[in-house]
Every structure is written in C-alpha cells, then in structure tokens.
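User: I've been trying to design a sequence by hand for this structure and keep getting stuck. Would you show me what you'd pick, starting by listing the structure so we're on the same page?

Assistant: Good idea, let's start from the same input. This is the structure you sent:
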C-alpha cells in the first residue's frame, strides 16, 4: 500500500484505552454504549426525507432504560456544515434533552467507536471502521445499489443485520450484541488497510521522496495518540418516568428503571409499567418544560456544592421544597456518585455510592439513588430503616449507597 490509513492506525493504537474512553463518556459498569452513525448522502441514515434519524434517536432515548444504556450520535462533518450546527441541534433537540450526546464531527468519534458496545449505522466509513475493530453493527439503512458490489463496504452490507423499523429497538440491539462472534468481521478488517500500523512510516517516506530529501534517521515517524475526551456524563433535562419495584428490607434494596419522556410520546414504552410496583416522575430544575416542575414527584438540580448561584445543597433543597410544594423529595447532585436530598418531612440526607472494585467512582446517575429513596419512603417505610446503606439495582447492576443523615 502506498500510504496506509492514519485514521485506522490511530484507532488500533488506542484500543487498549477502551475502558478510559468509556468512563470519559460517562458509561457506567453494566451500561451499554450505543453509537448512532450517519454519513451525508441523500440515502444515508440522516439524509432521508422522512426525518428517520431524529425520530430514531428520540425513540432510542425513550425506549432504552437510562441507567442501562448510553447513546451518542456521530454525524458526518458535511451534515453539520451543510445544514448548519443550529439546524442539526434543533433536529436532535428532543433526543439531546433526553440524554443523547452528539459527538464532535472532527474529534472524539474514534474514541466513541472504541468505547461502543454496538453501532447503529449505514454505509459510512465510521460504521465500517466499527465493524473492522470488532464492534457489533446494526444497519439502519444501507443503499446496496449505490455501492460497488466488490467493495469492502458493500460486503458489510451483505453480512451485518438490518434494523427493522417497526420492531423493538432494544431487542434488536441486544440480539446483535448477543449473537456477535469475535472475529465475525475479520475479513473486513483485513481489507481496511494492507499495512496496519505503518501509515506514519509510509507517508513520511512518500513525502520525503517527493521532495527528493533524505528522511531523518534519528526521529521515528509517529502519529498523535487519540486524546482522552473530557468527562461528559449524560444529562437529562427532559422529564424522567421512574419505575420501582422489588422493595425489600433485609437488607434494604430497591430496583429502579428510568425512561426519559421524549416530546409528545408516551411517558413509558409499552410493557415495563405493568412490571413495576410504583411509578413516579423526576424533573430537572433546568427543564424546558417548566410546567412539569409543579407536578413532579422529585425535583433535581445538578451543580457543584460550592456553586454560589444555587448552593450549598442544604440551602437549595430547603428553597426547592418551598418552591415546589407538591413534590415529595428534592435532590442536589453535587458529584458523579453522590447527591444531597431533602424529604418532605424535612430530613436532609447524603446519598453516596460505594466505589467500584478498582476504587473509581460509581458512574450511575445519582438521581437514580434519589428515586430509590423516594420509592422507599412512598411505600410507607421509615427513613431510619434505610440507614446506613441501601442497595439500588439498575438492570443487572447493584449499587451500594450509603444513607447518611445530615444536620438540618
């Protein structure tokens, strides 16, 4: 090969950083990261006339439980530049308020691919790169007739599963992950580059030959490593409908399932509500749907404890209970693994998740812990019986949460 593929080489070199990239994207243990990718042609996932991708992203945000899945979007730079960032953000608005993260069109998408558990894409090079590094792929659209049938991308279209528009998105994604075999796309990976890991050497040699100069002998040709993205957990300012169940006292435990309420869609996808003991609604104080705040069971604020605009937590929680007289509990999230809540009875409580086995913070949204405590109290159980620790279960993951009474 004349030059190799620098982009692919940077991805290959960064594969050992997968766990760090996942934490940077706010993916907690037990969560699955779903990356939705679209190229920019008229027959791409984003390019159709039926608003497929915005609707698909909103459907994903509503159907996938918030604490079991994390969703990001990787859109071709020409989508952003052709329509303008403001228009693209407007199209994605409902999904973004429900927790979607739109990755920068120039930086960060490679790290998202490495971190992904599944990529929902089309005939883009991003989807192909994902398959080549062994990530399960589901094709939301794929114009096979637009591609050279002998091309590697066309081969991906013949082998990867297709998304059924009217089926359960969660079931299809979970099936693609469960049925994926290591090495499933080995032949595609071999066609990505005939000289993997060698592009820097090949390109420099080519450039120096073109200039008729001798290459430096004491400086190896190297590519910049992929940087660690800034920490960016999911943020939901859309209302969240919470299902709770399996409440028990020996030891104290609560199961929590949370779904974002997207646009004018139903509060919950079909099915899950029938399996819950109780349901309640959580609303972020920075929501656009301010009318929902007066109807919320739990109101949440995310800020540093020393934020002079709203903190400290004790002050905000006291003000919030007065401002929203119909809510049963308010929560001030002041860290990735903790929050301070105040109950309608006036008790001020610190909820702190135990660290992961490696000592790092549990990255589950602390608002889930506030919902667990709300459900505990709403079931008629006293606060003191939740002390000193309650187990909060999200999907298959158990979070040990310390319950500490604070001075009022």
């Amino acid at each position: 090969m004349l030059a190799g593929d620098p982009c692919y080489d940077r991805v290959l070199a960064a594969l050992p950083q997968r766990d760090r990239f996942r934490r940077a994207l706010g993916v907690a243990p037990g969560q699955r990261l779903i990356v939705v990718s679209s190229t920019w042609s008229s027959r791409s996932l984003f390019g159709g006339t039926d608003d497929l991708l915005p609707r698909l992203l909103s459907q994903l945000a509503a159907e996938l439980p918030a604490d079991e899945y994390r969703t990001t979007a990787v859109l071709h730079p020409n989508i952003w530049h052709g329509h303008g960032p403001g228009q693209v953000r407007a199209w994605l608005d409902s999904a973004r308020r429900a927790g979607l993260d739109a990755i920068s069109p120039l930086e960060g998408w490679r790290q998202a691919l490495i971190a992904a558990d599944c990529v929902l894409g089309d005939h883009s090079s991003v989807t192909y790169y994902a398959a080549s590094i062994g990530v399960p792929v589901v094709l939301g659209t794929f114009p096979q007739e637009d591609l050279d049938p002998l091309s590697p991308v066309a081969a991906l279209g013949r082998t990867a599963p297709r998304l059924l528009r009217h089926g359960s998105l969660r079931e299809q994604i979970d099936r693609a992950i469960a049925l994926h075999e290591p090495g499933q796309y080995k032949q595609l990976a071999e066609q990505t580059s005939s000289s993997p890991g060698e592009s820097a050497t090949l390109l420099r040699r080519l450039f120096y030959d073109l200039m008729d100069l001798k290459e430096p002998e004491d400086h190896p040709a190297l590519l910049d490593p992929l940087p660690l993205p800034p920490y960016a957990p999911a943020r939901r300012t859309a209302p969240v409908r919470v299902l709770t169940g399996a409440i028990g006292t020996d030891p104290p435990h609560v199961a929590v399932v949370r779904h974002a309420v997207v646009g004018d869609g139903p509060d919950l996808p079909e099915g899950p509500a029938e399996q819950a003991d109780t349901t309640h609604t959580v609303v972020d104080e920075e929501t656009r749907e301010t009318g929902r705040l007066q109807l919320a069971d739990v109101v949440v604020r995310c800020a540093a404890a020393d934020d002079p605009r709203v903190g400290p937590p004790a002050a905000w929680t006291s003000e919030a209970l007065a401002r929203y007289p119909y809510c049963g509990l308010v929560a001030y999230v002041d860290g990735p693994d903790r929050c301070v809540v105040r109950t309608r009875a006036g008790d001020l409580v610190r909820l702190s998740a135990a660290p992961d086995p490696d000592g790092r913070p549990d990255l589950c949204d602390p608002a889930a812990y506030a919902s667990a405590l709300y459900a505990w109290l709403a079931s008629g159980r006293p606060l003191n019986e939740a002390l000193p620790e309650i187990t909060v279960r999200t999907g298959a993951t158990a979070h040990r949460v310390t319950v500490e009474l604070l001075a009022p």
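That's my pick for every position. To get oriented when you compare it with your attempt: The chain has a mean pLDDT of 91. Residues 52-63 form the longest helix (12 residues).
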